[in-house]
Design brief:
about 450 residues; mainly alpha; 17 helices
Length: about 450
């Protein structure tokens, strides 16, 4: 059901919209960790390291799908808030066409360049073939990834966070069951978890696209809807391209970090793979709530109700802080058992690396959650230059300091983990400053456009 986020209490509207998003986060994380969890338990530490290593490469493709999702979602949210139904439908059609072309280009590039990329990050010889096998199957399923993400972004733009939740819940549950069937039941290994993801993501994509097209047919409009609008394509690109660059830059930075980590051997790789899965669960939760903030801000700016943005920001901080407290306690008190969930009989190197990462990074979740909510406001308001400046500063520092702390200061793998809090802290300061000083915050809609 479509929801107007421009009416009623901003806090109540944002909470009602975000609760299903939070449920989606839980199932999405189940979907993301199922491959690693099953392969780590039923195949072994080497296969677990292979999936974790390949995962860093898949983040590049996810970055592009995420950018298309955000670009479409923010523009559709504004048009929805302005009650421009014909423009909204044209934006959806334009996004589908442009994203389809982009997806085909990425598939070709992926099949050609992934072997070189794996060599570039010093992938150990013993897991190289497993990494490539996983990536080939993953790349074949990129259309499912793209069109599913775009469809869920459209639902969110129209204020409907429940429908994406239902799709994710069904898909994630099925993915875990098929993972176990293929790996434990049929004796498959890395290929089993890759094919399970391919099949379940394919089904959820088809259902999501069908549902969003049916929903759009129920929205009345006057006049002919453009199949592809150059003007709307430019608007979408203004948000999508910086978001893609941001996520791609993060992915490239993670790959560089993975290369540094790989030099410490498969034990540290496996421990990091387990810990970073746990970390990504939290960061993805914050990011998803930040995306919800972008939808809220974009709808209200489209409706000319910018005074609601500050109240929405405060409500967003309340949500992420409430999420932080139990996670902080869980990760700090139960780090070792959580690492063992992913790896059957882990080596001492793997256990030490994973628990050290969690002890160092976890206390700073309160910091990075503030950044991601502020980023959501900036993105929803179209202040993309400021959004990118804060994000890039964070990542550049993390990558640079990981090398400085681990190699030049001779802190080893612990030095890599210490780079996270520093990058997060400085990026958060910048994001909050941009939020408080942005011309869109107190100005007009015209000033909002200039803030881009």
């Amino acid at each position: 059901m479509n929801k107007d986020l421009t009416i009623g209490s901003p806090r109540a509207a944002l909470w009602r919209f975000s609760l299903p998003l939070f449920g989606s986060i839980l199932f999405q994380q189940l979907y993301n960790i199922a491959d690693s969890l099953v392969v780590g338990k039923f195949v072994g530490e080497g296969a677990f390291a292979a999936v974790g290593n390949a995962y860093e490469v898949t983040l590049i493709f996810i970055a592009f799908a995420f950018g298309c999702n955000i670009g479409c979602s923010v523009v559709v949210s504004r048009l929805f808030g302005a009650k421009d139904w014909r423009g909204m439908k044209a934006a959806v059609s334009t996004t589908f066409i442009a994203s389809g072309v982009l997806c085909l280009v990425l598939m070709g590039a992926g099949f050609l360049l992934c072997p070189a990329l794996l060599r570039l990050i010093l992938t150990p010889a013993e897991i190289f073939e497993d990494c490539m096998l996983y990536l080939r199957i993953y790349i074949a399923g990129l259309p499912f990834l793209f069109f599913y993400n775009i469809s869920t972004g459209i639902f969110s733009a129209m204020g409907d966070s429940k429908t994406p939740f239902l799709f994710l819940a069904a898909s994630s549950t099925a993915n875990i069951a098929v993972d176990v069937l293929f790996v434990k039941g049929l004796g498959m290994a890395v290929d089993g978890v890759a094919w399970a993801t391919f099949l379940c993501q394919g089904v959820s994509c088809l259902l999501a696209v069908t549902a969003v097209l049916r929903r759009l047919r129920t929205v009345p409009h006057v006049g002919k809807v453009a199949r592809f609008s150059p003007a709307l394509f430019r608007e979408i690109a203004v948000v999508a391209v910086p978001s893609i660059l941001q996520q791609s830059f993060i992915s490239v930075g993670n790959i560089v970090l993975q290369g540094i980590i790989n030099s410490y051997g498969s034990g540290v790789m496996a421990g990091y793979s387990a810990a970073v899965k746990l970390n990504n669960m939290v960061i993805t939760a914050f990011t998803t709530l930040g995306n919800g903030m972008s939808n809220f801000v974009a709808q209200n700016i489209g409706a000319g109700k910018k005074e609601r943005v500050r109240q929405g920001f405060r409500a967003g901080l309340e949500m992420v802080y409430l999420l932080c407290v139990p996670i902080l306690a869980l990760y700090l008190l139960c780090g070792e058992p959580l690492i063992r969930l992913f790896i059957e009989d882990p080596s001492q190197d793997a256990l030490h690396a994973g628990t050290a990462f969690l002890r160092i990074v976890t206390p700073f979740y309160l910091v990075v959650s503030t950044k991601l909510i502020a980023d959501g406001v900036l993105r929803g308001a179209g202040a993309m230059r400021r959004f990118m400046a804060a994000t890039f500063s964070d990542l550049i520092l993390r990558v640079t300091l990981a090398y400085v702390f681990s190699a030049l200061f001779a802190w080893g793998s612990t030095g890599i983990w210490c780079a996270w809090p520093v990058g997060w802290s400085i990026g958060t300061v910048l994001s909050v400053i941009f939020y408080r000083r942005g011309s869109w915050h107190e100005g007009s809609s015209a000033e909002c456009a200039q803030a881009r």
